[in-house]
Fold these 2 entries.
Entry 1:
Amino acid sequence: MALSESVKNALAPIHREGYPFVAGAALATLVLFWLWTPLGWIGAVATCWVAYFFRDPTRVTPIADGLVVSPADGRIALVTNAVPPAELKLGSEALPRVSIFMNVLDVHVNRSPIGGKVAHIIYTPGKFINADLDKASEDNERNSIVISDGKHTVAIVQIAGLIARRIVCFVREGDTIAAGERVGLIRFGSRVDVYLPAGVRPLVAEGQTARGGETVIADIGHRYPKRAFRVG
């Protein structure tokens, strides 16, 4: 019998960034068992959670010119038009923006929304307020990745949150990457903003759950009409 989707997700491989944390938690658990067995079991549960947090499941990315896929797992927190941060150099006009909020149970490996060349990577220090708030896009510590396919430019912004204190970027300026390719990770719960080209209509709604590398959030080619949504 094939494993259910939830079980497969839980048993996904651990990303290499998580190895030191899992090893540290496991070592602490051994010490706790030596001190007092009940504490050791608490440590064992914590170790399992750390391993679960750093899981890196395989994703099946739809490939087609113009498709923009979600860079992160999580809840679509905001779908709006907003002026992008100045460091992105995308102009002063408001652009379509999709914000994905990741809680501590979501997969935290981030993926490229489109295929293309990494034009810019900009790290900006800042605050650590609740990443679910709109002002987190401008106030919080963040790492921005601008990607161009030669025709269009899409930017993702990895935003630290109330608990998250470390943003990891896997790519460098000048790299050529594919849609759905791993580009970074945020520890431990945060948000990713996607800035789309002007005039592009997002195909997701606030409250929807996205899967990084799989959920189509926009179509730059405008082949699909604006979607309607029903909650129920």
Entry 2:
Amino acid sequence: MNKKERMLNLLEKAQVIVDGAEAEERSLADEEHEQAMKLIGDAMQIRDEIKTDERDTELKTSLGKLLGDLQQGEPQSQPQEAKGTLGERFLADQAWQAWKKQVAPSGQFTSGRLGMSPAVMVKSFGLWGRKELITGLDSTSAGVFVVTDQTGIYEQIGRYPTVLRDLISIRQTTSDVVEYVRQTAQVTQAAPTAEANVKYVTGATGEISGEKPQGTMAFERVSETVKTVAVYVGATKRALADAAQIRGIIDQELREDLVDCLEDQLFNGNGVGENFTGLANQAGTLVQAFNTDILTTTRQALTTLLVTGRQIPTAWTFSPTDWETVELLQDAENRYYWGGPLAQGPPRMWGVPVVQSFHQTAGSAWLANWRKAVLWDREQATITATDSHDDWFIRNMVAILAEMRAAFGLIRPSGFINVELA
């Protein structure tokens, strides 16, 4: 068996070990890894010997041709083969010897001007027996044996955290339209009433009818239609079959996109077409105009919600940039109002919890009894796949669709106050 056959035999044995582990869908055991690495190392050593043999053969062939050319008429001043160190080969060169006789006939160099010695051609020092360095980067060297370590780590770009669904009320519906009754006027006619002193009221002086005031109430019926939020992506059947984890990644991405879109709609939807009517466009919500500074304005908003809205707030929502401004507020002695970087515990403002949403419009905040906002789930987020889209069936492609259906409304709009921060 020659060297190449021996090398291939070793590599095939190593490959058998690796293939066996992959077939069983497991990692190599320590003993298997050590055995495979030894086989690869032995193969690398033989491969190096083969390369050295091939290089030496090529060099000897080139040298024989060069010497043959020199012997057939090249000038005698051409370099002759010499043994020994680089210095010994230089001193033995014929061109050097001839120049030395001209400038130093006696064999001794004087201190006069000697001029430049002739160029001397010698073999590269260490040419014979030179070994190449085996590197792990070179694809023609040890790098060919490097096996990539598949960690299995998948890192997403990331999405903004969503908070609104955790604040509001969540209910279920089986209809495409949700209706509820909202009171628009309440009984406010109660008054102290004297006892009647006559059976029939004639209008005479001193008569007391004893008539009780009549109260009145008013209501309205509110309808909220169910809206659909959806998104789909295309994938080939081959990709889904060959990369098992890609389907899970797609499903997760689609669901997270639905949640992100929903939160934006609940804050900012304009109510046009299939858009939700978000907080910013709901009729009947309260507004607190900016007054003097953020601290004064937010405290007045708390009073307005209690007095006008007749609601106890459950949370503030701030944009991250606005909450940063609030937390950096300092008094006249440069002390942070909110405890500064060492403050501990959940953030609160005027005793009310604070949450940050990336879909909250900067420059304003919401203070509310968030239980008075309701999301009716008609159809929670679902994932379906089909090839019945356009000509995808004949192209082996699949459409993966995510969608959800829901309705949103404020059963008491006056329980929400938009606070201007600037």
